[in-house]
Design a protein that fits this description.
YerB-like fold; 312 residues; 24% strand; 17 strands; globular; mainly beta
């Protein structure tokens, strides 16, 4: 392999860059109260019930999706952005970016992967996870993200706790975001508000001839799902595999819900990224320790309002 330069932190631009066809954001006038301009969450474009929640770093929290009995998970419906990606042996895992909401239970929290570095850097967040394979843990701890890694036992104050389930502790660890700020102060880590590059939000769906009501992702006979568009709510509802397709069991689905809120897991936008899944060496290939590369560019699809928009 050709050696690649070590990733470095790149500050997000503070100025707005005009894009043809998109409205120019309003600039604050002289003497404006900046607090009044910050009531919308830059990650969703939506108002927040408590603007003080935005005065902190986001929390990037690993949430298990396997084995099946960890469902329903807690906190997915309260996250601003959720990534799902392949880990190994046919299974996937979630990364939930918690910023505009808090939750006393998020999880079950599971181990970290190389991929999590990308999300943590994108959102200038704390990476909350339950340890990791020595190769991945060493890589993260030797990077400049070290002070932003939050694992079980962090400083003796990280708000991890066992969940209200009768299961082994490995899949029963949850994180309380409401108590993290006090721990960050105690440990003297930087939990200040970050310069998060906001997206462009509009109620008008782009024109496209591609009408799509259901989006399937088939990772393996153990992990498959789809998102179903609901015109009444303008949301996509998540359906997860109801059983492994072994011993002649048929393909079957069930709604995915959130144990913390009791709500179905939904999204207003579903983005599918096609990215390289590579191995650093044959040893990592044997164990399926992937490097999922989000650098450079590739193909994608953006789904919203029942349509699909090809993207890069």
């Amino acid at each position: 392999m050709t050696p690649q330069p070590e990733p470095t932190f790149t500050p997000y631009p503070m100025q707005y860059i005009p894009v043809e066809g998109l409205p120019t954001p309003l600039e604050p006038s002289s003497g404006s109260d900046f607090s009044l301009l910050n009531i919308n969450n830059p990650l969703t474009g939506l108002p927040v019930s408590d603007p003080t929640l935005l005065e902190r770093r986001p929390m990037v929290i690993k949430i298990g999706n396997a084995p099946d009995y960890v469902r329903p998970q807690s906190g997915l419906t309260l996250a601003d952005v959720v990534f799902e990606y392949y880990i190994e042996w046919g299974d996937t895992r979630f990364v939930a970016v918690m910023y505009g909401n808090d939750s006393p239970l998020v999880g079950p929290v599971r181990s970290g992967r190389y991929f999590d570095e990308h999300v943590t850097r994108m959102y200038h967040g704390f990476l909350v996870f339950k340890s990791a394979d020595p190769r991945e843990l060493t890589y993260l701890q030797e990077s400049d993200l070290k002070e932003f890694l939050v694992i079980v036992g962090f400083g003796g104050c990280a708000p991890f706790s066992l969940g209200p389930y009768r299961r082994e502790s490995y899949n029963n660890q949850f994180f309380n975001t409401t108590k993290w700020a006090a721990c960050a102060i105690r440990m003297d880590v930087d939990n200040s508000r970050q310069s998060l590059r906001g997206g462009f939000f509009t109620e008008d769906a782009p024109e496209t001839p591609l009408s799509v009501s259901r989006i399937f992702s088939f990772y393996s006979i153990y992990s498959y799902n789809y998102w179903q568009y609901d015109p009444a709510t303008h949301k996509y509802f998540r359906y997860q595999e109801a059983n492994d397709m072994v011993k002649n069991k048929p393909e079957a689905y069930t709604p995915l819900t959130d144990a913390q809120t009791g709500l179905p897991v939904t999204a207003e936008n579903v983005v599918v990224l096609f990215v390289p899944h590579i191995f650093a060496n044959s040893y990592n290939a044997h164990d399926e320790v992937y490097n999922i590369d989000l650098l450079d560019f590739g193909n994608a699809y953006v789904f919203r309002d029942g349509v699909a928009i090809p993207a890069y």
